[in-house]
Write a structure and sequence with these properties.
- By secondary structure, the protein is of the alpha+beta class.
- The chain is 36% helix and 34% strand.
- The longest helix is centred in the N-terminal third of the chain and has 17 residues.
- It is globular, with a radius of gyration of 14 Å.
Length: 97
């Protein structure tokens, strides 16, 4: 991986759910964290929950370059978790720079 900061990709992903699904969504979203942190090119990967709106979560992650993002997105673990997580979400949004 290159160490050029201009190649870095930083992502904020917002996840929203119903109150009844909140704990399961949190559990599933946490399953992304440690495996992602171990992936080549991961700079950071964190899950946050809004205090005043606990049905809203944010995944904030940084990657060395687009190749690392693409590799993460193709990871079988991500697909496996999303299979269960996706139907529990009422909204998702992703912003990257």
């Amino acid at each position: 991986m290159t160490a050029n900061r201009l190649d870095e990709i930083h992502i904020v992903c917002e996840l929203r759910c119903e109150t009844a699904n909140r704990e399961r969504v949190r559990e599933l979203a946490l399953q992304f964290v440690e495996p992602a942190r171990a992936e080549e090119g991961c700079l950071y990967y964190n899950l946050h929950q809004k205090l005043d709106e606990p049905n809203i979560f944010f995944i904030i992650d940084g990657w060395a370059n687009q190749a690392a993002v693409d590799s993460h997105a193709k990871n079988a673990h991500v697909a496996s978790v999303m299979k269960e997580l996706g139907p529990l979400l009422t909204f998702t949004s992703r912003v990257s720079d």
